[in-house]
């Protein structure tokens, strides 16, 4: 796990916007209302966390990316993809993080931080395009609790999981210690185990430990499938054989590459924190 101050001078901080908003909206101890009766606890938490992350990482470039309401190729590959998630269209404002999204956008504008919604692909894909495009030239820090980003980790790319003073930076050693694999194997790993948060089913009888053992033996998912006759445990071999189509489909869904267009050039993302506080931002957007 990297020390937060170990990064080089030139670095791009990418914030997974909805991920942070949901974390803050549901993580605040209570609903907070201003003098006009407007709830803003999600905005308050988002701005406060964002400023703390900026201070922790000291980025030279910064972007905040959000998902938009549209279907994508993953839904075509798997009809059940993310179908287990809450439909917020009928959720009342007091329980709906999206009700505070406009104020989050206003806060980012006030802070002069570039932000946008992913237009065709998912936020994950846009973040991956940034990491894969610029990861050889500068440090990339992805702030998110979405484990899909683990597959992008390398010497220059890391994932920040914000928990206040318990914030951690996930690097190659973190992935090796936690899962017994390399970051480059994480998409294969998750294809085998599945992902409950995205409603992706893995292969029966293959948990985290077995998936790690298989990848240590065969290196990647395709080798596991093609050389399944070498698997010594009958139940595991049968599971791989029975779920071959699903596993390959999972990989297509989980694997991140450079397919998404980058919305801002690196030059447009140049950023220097000017010391604004959370309270100053809230006053600036007329919430507090």
Key terms:
DNA polymerase, domain 1; 40% helix; 2 domains; alpha/beta; 12 helices; six-stranded mixed sheet
Largest sheet: 6 strands, mixed
Instruction: Tell me the strand order in the biggest sheet.
Output: 3-2-1-4-5-6
Name the average pLDDT: 93
| CATH fold descriptor of the largest domain | Rossmann fold
CATH superfamily of the largest domain: 5'-nuclease
Number of domains: 2
Order of helices and strands: EHHEHHEHEEEHHEEHHHHH
Known CATH architecture of the largest domain: 3-Layer(aba) Sandwich
Give the overall shape, derived from the CA principal axes.
globular
CATH class division of the largest domain: Alpha Beta
Overall radius of gyration: 20 Å
Structure characterization notes:
The protein is an alpha/beta fold and 288 residues long. It folds into 2 domains: 11-177 and 257-284, 3-Layer(aba) Sandwich (Rossmann fold), CATH 3.40.50; 181-254, 5' to 3' exonuclease, C-terminal subdomain (DNA polymerase, domain 1). Helices cover 40% and strands 11% of the residues. It is built from 12 helices and 8 strands. It has helices spanning 17-27, 41-57, 73-77, 101-110, 123-134, 172-179, 186-193, 208-218, 221-226, 234-242, 244-254, 278-284, and strands at residues 11-16, 61-66, 114-117, 139-143, 157-161, 168-170, 194-195, 200-201. A 6-stranded mixed β-sheet has the order 3-2-1-4-5-6, with helices on both faces. Strands 7-8 form a two-stranded antiparallel sheet. Helix 1 (17-27) crosses helix 2 (41-57), helix 2 (41-57) packs parallel to helix 4 and helix 7 packs across helix 8. The longest helix is centred in the first third of the chain and has 17 residues, at 41-57. It is globular. The protein starts with 10 loop residues before the first strand and ends with a helix. The mean pLDDT is 93.
